[in-house]
Amino acid sequence: MTAQVATRIGVCGAGAMGSGIAEIAAQHGADVKVFDVSAEALKGSEARIDKSIARLVEKGKLTGAQGDEALGRLQWVSDLADMADRELVIEAVIEDAGIKASLFARLEEVLDDRAIIASNTSSLPIGRLARTLRNSGRFCGMHFFNPATVMKLVEVISGPATDPAVTNRVAATATGWGKVAIPVADVPGFIVNRVARPFYGEAFTALNEGAAQPHEIDALFRANGFRMGPLELTDLIGQDVNFSVARSVYDSYFGQTRFVPQLRQAALVDAGWLGRKSGRGVYSYDDGQSASEEIARPTEASDADRDLAKQVLGLKAGTLLESGGVLIGLTRGRTAASEARAAGKPVVLFDLIAPDSDGPNGYSVSDESAVQVAQSVAAGLGRAAVRVADRPGLIVCRTLAQIANAAADAVFEQVADEQGIDSALRYGANYPFGPFSFADRIGRDSLVSILQNIAAATGQPMYSPSQYWSAP
């Protein structure tokens, strides 16, 4: 039987996240009450939602009547007793287990026994939060992503005691609000904050190794469909916030090496270089430094360059094409120098190449004699080329392979299924494709080989392929 959508919603916490949740619920027909102990917070929430609705009306996404109706379904209250008639109450207060526990205890005093309590926590275990409730079966996680009015994903987390009917109804409610509701096991980081860790960690590893300049690293990811590169994104999120999540996930998994925090990021936090909010992070926002700094494109291409580029686009990892005595290939997790030693000829290796992009490509060479061939390929593609330090897996391929590896671990440990994880990364992190879609794109056997080669070349067990890839 299809679960019924909850229509009487309570939101505890009138900050940006709570206001966003309340707004999206009201837009989809729910009767919503927003609670906060701070009169100033309530006033700010009302103003924030008024402004947001007005903007939607101005853009034609809502009619004036629809905007008025949505606002008419909202109330702001300072007495928790006003939540007594709510079917579903979503907690969106500070990430402090003690403060949340106090709120839950008070909610249980006023709510009907059948009412659901959900936490928007992004990091605290649902089982731990539920311990203080008299009825822990009515409790689950309902993790929205910021801004809640825009981001599609809602992670619906079942604790050990959660009644399946509760998560079914919460998922149905989120779906009714136009969200993509993904069921998730109660593990540290849930899906997105766990699986996405290598996106940031690998970028700081590359930066620490001097593999490329920050703006080049970010540009390589944008060329592969990402809206923002990992370094500029950490500046936007806040280096302190992003590093705190990295530490939390790492500690929660008792030092599992796939989630190791990066010292280069820790140094930024120690220096107070927190990103946009402090005026400086990876980039300096006071002197106009930008992640979108222009990377020079090659000169006019010849017909031979265009023909060579077309052949390179058709290559698979591990296949080498010869041109002018130089071997050309896509990374398979080895360095260009090691490939050259095995083949007895100079080698140029390219990072992932998105055929429908006009952004830059990364490459490394075994020696200077291969640089001209790399530039010829770039010219034939009509795209800029970024020479990267000769490192196993280069930058983008290595990062995406490790994200896929973390995703595979999550399926193996029954956190969620492949489709759920792909959807979570697409709708919760704005990835252009999910990690399993990437694995299928390059071939799962090829992915395993790339990871094995990176692990061997770096001596780091964190790159060893997940057991999931070899599971029956």
From TrEMBL:
Gene3D superfamilies listed in its UniProt record: 1.10.1040.50, N-(1-d-carboxylethyl)-l-norvaline Dehydrogenase, domain 2, NAD(P)-binding Rossmann-like Domain
Domain 3-hydroxyacyl-CoA dehydrogenase C-terminal: 189-285, 393-468
Cited SUPFAM superfamilies: 6-phosphogluconate dehydrogenase C-terminal domain-like, NAD(P)-binding Rossmann-fold domains
Signal sequence, start to end: none
Pfam families on file: 3HCDH (PF00725), 3HCDH_N (PF02737)
GO BP terms, alphabetized: fatty acid metabolic process
Domain 3-hydroxyacyl-CoA dehydrogenase NAD binding: 9-186
UniProt cross-references to InterPro entries, sorted A to Z: 3-OHacyl-CoA_DH_NAD-bd, 3HC_DH_C, 6-PGluconate_DH-like_C_sf, 6PGD_dom2, NAD(P)-bd_dom_sf
UniProt KW keywords: Oxidoreductase
GO molecular function: NAD+ binding; oxidoreductase activity, acting on the CH-OH group of donors, NAD or NADP as acceptor
Protein name per the record: 3-hydroxybutyryl-CoA dehydrogenase
Claim: Electron transport is one of the keywords in the record: no
Domain of life: Bacteria
